[in-house]
Amino acid sequence: MDNEETQLPEEPFTVELDGDAASAEITELSAGYLARGYGEKDEHTRKIVLHPCEALYLLERQKIEVTNKNKETVNFNRLLNSLEQNNPNIWTDYVVFRDLRKRGYVVKEGFGPDFRFRVFEVILSVVDRRNEVVYYLSTLVELINV
Questions:
Q1: pLDDT of 6-64, one tens digit each?
Q2: Cβ contact 24:34 at 8 Å
Q3: Rounded distance, CA 139 to CA 131, Å?
Q4: DSSP H helical segments within 50-142, as ranges?
Q5: Fewer CB within 10 Å: C terminus or N terminus of the chain?
Q6: Phi/psi at 29 (5° precision)
Q7: Are strands 124-127 and 107-112 parallel, antiparallel or unpaired?
Q8: Would you identify the CATH topology of the domain 3-104?
Q9: Is this model's pTM higher than 0.90 or not?
């Protein structure tokens, strides 16, 4: 187990899937996940809303249980298939998200289709044909005319 998993509660909480949105009531348990960088708080509904990759990651780690509108349990493959309908790149996104989370980074939704995630310190990630993730760190360089 990585350090992050040892900090997460053992007991899973239940989220309801509605299209691409997975949300749950804010409780003491789910608030602990908010504090660790998972999800966003929706002030209008008073719920925690998980990014699709967060839902996949937490489901794979058995930290959440996912149900649909009919209160039927949704397993990992069914969730992945459902999310692929609106985002054909969800698997690639998930591979990157999972790798970053395992490395201890807090990962948030990016600013559009070209920048899928915001991550502190790791700037660019590329997934090769073997689903291996390669990272490139870039920094700003100031050019000085001499």
A1: 577 788 999 999 888 899 998 888 888 888 889 999 989 889 999 999 999 999 999 99
A2: no
A3: 26
A4: 52-60, 76-84, 90-102
A5: C
A6: -65, -55
A7: unpaired
A8: MutS, DNA mismatch repair protein, domain I (3.40.1170)
A9: no
